[in-house]
Structure formats: structure tokens, C-alpha cells
Design goal:
42% of the residues lie in helices and 15% in strands. With 256 residues, the chain is α/β, with parallel strands linked by helices. It has one domain: 3-Layer(aba) Sandwich (Rossmann fold), CATH 3.40.50. The radius of gyration is 17 Å and the shape is globular. It binds NADP nicotinamide-adenine-dinucleotide phosphate. NADP nicotinamide-adenine-dinucleotide phosphate (NAP) binds next to helix 2. Belongs to the short-chain dehydrogenases/reductases (SDR) family. Keywords: Oxidoreductase.
């Protein structure tokens, strides 16, 4: 297989959580550009229309699932739907995530639980179900978890988010160790500061926005499209000997 061919996702099926907008939408489109059919997940299929149209315009298929990932007992069914619709599933992108900002001494238990359930517990449960499916069917596969700068740094006002994203790195490494023998690769992508709804509050605060901007060596905030290359690499045969690692896509932020 030539190297360009090894990046192809022709005939592959990818689950992308949080596919309605932001980074999940761009990654779903990137995977479809590389040849994959997509199973998208978010709280409303109506909100996924834009992603669905973009994927279909590339000649790929798109199936939307409406699920609130806080309903933890239903998370595993995502894999069942993908297999029912496409007969198989090869790639899992654990992207959906929420952030709740408050000073740590005021941080509510409700916000803590919501962030941890969406950002970490649902990722554990969905990855477990996906891995079980692959192992039972003797198939290889790829799991890609979306980490953050706050997988490495403490941040401020983001107690649950920071802990959940540190947890994502631990879970990535643990899964990589246990699943390597089954030919399941597990890696993470750590985006820097990206222009999406997730960072709207930060970008509205002109002082914070400029502080962050001035610290980014590449001199600009990231765009969702900036993740396409990394996600296609980790989802494809090109990364077959890469597991337990993190690709940082941050315009140089962590090197500073
Ligand atoms: P976003 O624009 O706010 O999108 C979040 C996505 O997650 C949406 O598709 C949303 O779908 C989905 N989602 C949220 N809660 C959900 C729930 N309970 N059940 C199902 N789906 C849910 O955020 P983003 O910036 O694209 O973030 C995507 C991932 O990247 C997150 O894990 C985030 O932590 C991470 N990240 C972002 C940045 C950044 O700078 N933007 C940096 C580092 C890491 P609906 O709301 O339509 O249901």
C-alpha cells in the first residue's frame, strides 16, 4: 500500500459524537472527505442537518442519532445503531464535550456531574461498547478521544473540565495498553484555542481573547478545519503503529 493510499478511509464507518457543530462537525466532514461514512451523535438530529448535507455532498452516507450523552445507560446503543445501519463500524471519535465556568469555591455539584458525565463517563462507556463489538467480531479499529490544553494545564474557573480532560488522557493510555493486543489503536487529539461555541465566552472577553492570542506562537486562534489532518491520520492505516499518544494541534501554545 502506498503512503497516500494508507490515509484513505474508503469503506470505513466512523461514529462522531458532537457532530452538530464546531470541531465534531469539521472532523466528520474531514473523515467523509477521506472516504468514511458517518454516524453523528448530538442532542438533536435537526441540529445535525448542516453536517449531514456536507457529508452527503461528498457522496458519503450520514446517519444522525439523537441522544443526550448524560443518559449513560443509552450510550452503548450508538454502536448497535451504527452496525444496524452500516453493517459495521471501524472508527470512534469521542468528541462531544461541555464546559462550565465558575470559581472553584462556587463550582456546583450539578455542573461537576454534568461535565464529568458528558466529557468522561460517556467516553468510557462508549469506548467499552465499541471495543467489545470489535473484539467479538475480530475486527481492528481506531478510537480517537478529544483532549484539550487543560489535559496538561490547570486552567482557571474550569474545575470539572480540567479534571475530565486530564482523565481523557489517562483513559486514552489505559485503553491503548489493554486494547493493543486486539489491534485497536487508541489516541487523543489535544486542540488548542479554537473558534467554536465552546470558547464563545472567552472570545467575548476582549482582554482574555487578546491575552490568549498574544501567547499563541502562530498568531491566530485555531479553526475547526485545523483538526482534519490529525483526525484522518489517526483514523487511518497510516497510524497503525501509533497508540496511546496525543497529537497536539495548538499553533504552538504548549511549546511556549
Ligand atoms: P461545541 O461547539 O460547543 O460543540 C459541542 C458538541 O458536543 C456539539 O455537537 C454538542 O451537540 C455536543 N454535545 C454537548 N453536550 C452533549 C450531550 N449532553 N449529549 C450529546 N451531545 C452533546 O464545542 P467544540 O469546541 O466543538 O468542542 C468539541 C470537543 O473539543 C469538546 O470535547 C471540547 O472539550 C474539545 N475542545 C475544544 C476546544 C476549543 O477551543 N473549542 C479546545 C480543546 C478541546 P448539541 O449541543 O447540538 O447537542
Amino acid at each position: 500500500m502506498g503512503v497516500l493510499e494508507s490515509f484513505s478511509l474508503n469503506g470505513k464507518v466512523a461514529i462522531v459524537t458532537g457532530a452538530s457543530r464546531g470541531l465534531g462537525q469539521a472532523m466528520a466532514i474531514g473523515l467523509a472527505e477521506a472516504g468514511a461514512d458517518i454516524v453523528g451523535v448530538s442532542r438533536s438530529t435537526e441540529q445535525q442537518e448542516e453536517t449531514k448535507k456536507a457529508v452527503e455532498s461528498l457522496g458519503r452516507k450520514y446517519v444522525g442519532i439523537e441522544l443526550d450523552l448524560r443518559e449513560l445507560d443509552k450510550v452503548g446503543a450508538i454502536v448497535d445503531v451504527a452496525v444496524k445501519e452500516f453493517g459495521t463500524v471501524d472508527i470512534l471519535i469521542n468528541n462531544a464535550g461541555v464546559i462550565r465556568r465558575a470559581p472553584v469555591i462556587e463550582y456546583s455539584e450539578k455542573d461537576w456531574d454534568e461535565v464529568m458525565d458528558v466529557n468522561l463517563k460517556s467516553v468510557f462507556l462508549l469506548s467499552q461498547k465499541f471495543a467489545r463489538y470489535l473484539i467479538e467480531n475480530q475486527k481492528k479499529g481506531k478510537i480517537i478521544n478529544i483532549a484539550s490544553m487543560l489535559s496538561f494545564q490547570g486552567g482557571i474557573y474550569t474545575a470539572a473540565y480540567t479534571v475530565s480532560k486530564h482523565g481523557i488522557l489517562g483513559l486514552t493510555r489505559l485503553l491503548a495498553n489493554e486494547l493493543a493486543r486486539y489491534n485497536i489503536n487508541v489516541n487523543a487529539i489535544a486542540p488548542g484555542y479554537m473558534v467554536t461555541d465552546n470558547t464563545e465566552a472567552l472570545r467575548k472577553d476582549e482582554k482574555r481573547y487578546n491575552e490568549i492570542l498574544s501567547r499563541i506562537p502562530m498568531g491566530r486562534w485555531g479553526l475547526p478545519e485545523d483538526l482534519k489532518g490529525a483526525v484522518v491520520f489517526l483514523a487511518s492505516e497510516a497510524s497503525n503503529y501509533v497508540t496511546g499518544s496525543v497529537i497536539v494541534v495548538d499553533g504552538g501554545w504548549l511549546s511556549r
